[in-house]
Design a protein that fits this description.
The protein has two domains: about 5-65, no CATH class; about 70-140, Cytochrome c-like domain (Cytochrome Bc1 Complex, Chain D, domain 2), CATH 1.10.760.10. The chain is mainly alpha-helical and about 140 residues long. The protein is built from eight helices and no strands. The longest helix is centred in the first third of the chain and has 23 residues, at about 5-25. Helices cover about 60% and strands about 0% of the residues. It has helices at about 5-25, 40-45, 50-65, 70-75, 80-85, 100-110, 125, 130-140. It binds heme C. Heme C binds near residues 78, 95, 103 and 122.
């Protein structure tokens, strides 16, 4: 073994030993997590706060995605063909601009099989499977149009 190669191998071996030694004393080293509680955990959190903050953000995003408006928007994809993407109407009447209470009352009436206008039969099968929450969510979304 020539001296240069020996020196290189020596450096790597000693370097690794020192690196592992250093990191085991470092509370922020994840390999030490099992014993990292209390103050150690606080330090780890400070050092890795980004990860936790990102998780918080993802959680908030998931909650926001489950808002009535978002759920209503999702349900509204089944209404677009007749009422238009922006609720401007088409085959069905314009929904844009209608108060949420009116939307709720009208959908509830269709769900109950009531006749409102001359084409109510088109809305009966649409409204029949709706839950109260579906109707509230749709109203919440339609009022944002
Ligand atoms: C196949 C076409 C069609 C689809 C799909 C449809 N609608 Fe309708 N919608 C109509 C028609 C036609 C009317 C008018 C019915 C009448 O004469 O009472 C109507 C009426 C309504 C009304 C009452 C409007 C008013 O001012 O009188 C609401 C609210 C409504 N629809 C909401 C929805 C929602 C929400 C969806 C999706 C979940 C939906 N509709 C899907 C055709 C449709």
């Amino acid at each position: 073994m020539n001296t240069n190669l020996f020196a290189a191998v020596f450096t790597v071996v000693i370097g690794s030993v020192i690196w592992v030694g250093m990191n085991q004393n470092d509370p922020s080293w994840s390999g030490n997590m099992n014993t990292c509680t209390g103050e150690c955990y606080e330090q780890w959190k400070e050092a890795h706060g980004g990860g936790i903050a990102a998780l918080e953000t993802a959680k908030q995003a998931a909650l926001a995605a489950a808002s009535p408006e978002a759920l209503g928007e999702n349900y509204y994809t089944g209404c677009v063909a007749c009422h238009g993407a922006n609720g401007a109407g088409g085959i069905g009447p314009q929904l844009e601009g209608q108060p949420g209470d009116d939307i709720v009352a009208k959908l509830t009436a269709y769900r109950a099989g009531e006749t409102r206008g001359g084409q109510s039969a088109m809305m009966w099968p649409v409204a029949k499977p709706m839950t109260d929450d579906d109707i509230q969510n749709l109203a919440a979304y339609i009022t944002t149009l």
